[in-house]
Write a structure and sequence with these properties.
Blueprint: H1 3-27, H2 31-42, H3 57-80, H4 93-108, H5 114-128, H6 133-148
């Protein structure tokens, strides 16, 4: 498999993970149901249902399951790096999903370089929002990278 296909597959997995986490947050869907539904109906598809690429389904499942399994660790990390007076619960559900998924990758996916995590989730924030959400994602994930992946970053 080429590097381009792998990169696109992982990008599509991240998009699907954010969407599944959003659905779970808003609708209260259970993990197994969200994974099955997204794998069968939405993963790798555009807004009109057209296939836009081949997602890395294993990575999608790892992201969603990992966020759910480690949410009690993830949320305090994110809360510690939000602007004063802000809490994860006050944020838009899509932004929560982006921050949770990005934090999971930083904390539990050491094979994914920090730069990739930051670039991918900032891009997702820009895809979903027109405002300053990309800056929020950049600020929070950059601060978390310095905490969780200090050895990987330049001095």
């Amino acid at each position: 498999m080429s590097k381009l296909v792998t990169h696109k597959g992982r990008s599509l997995a991240r998009l699907g993970a954010v969407q599944a986490l959003y659905q779970m947050d808003i609708a209260g869907s259970e993990l197994s149901r969200a994974l099955a539904e997204f794998s069968a109906m939405y993963l790798g598809k555009g807004p009109d249902g057209e296939q836009i690429g081949e997602p890395d389904e294993m990575f999608f499942r790892e992201l969603v399951s990992g966020v759910v399994d480690h949410q009690s660790d993830i949320d305090p990390h994110v809360n510690d790096h939000l602007a004063a007076g802000w809490r994860l619960a006050r944020l838009d559900a899509t932004l929560r999903a982006i921050l949770r998924s990005g934090t999971y990758e930083l904390g539990w996916c050491p094979d994914v370089p920090v730069k990739v995590v930051l670039d991918e989730y900032i891009e997702l924030a820009h895809d979903f929002f027109d405002g300053d959400e990309g800056k929020v994602v950049n600020g929070v994930l950059d601060a978390l990278a310095k905490k969780l992946r200090k050895a990987e970053l330049p001095a």
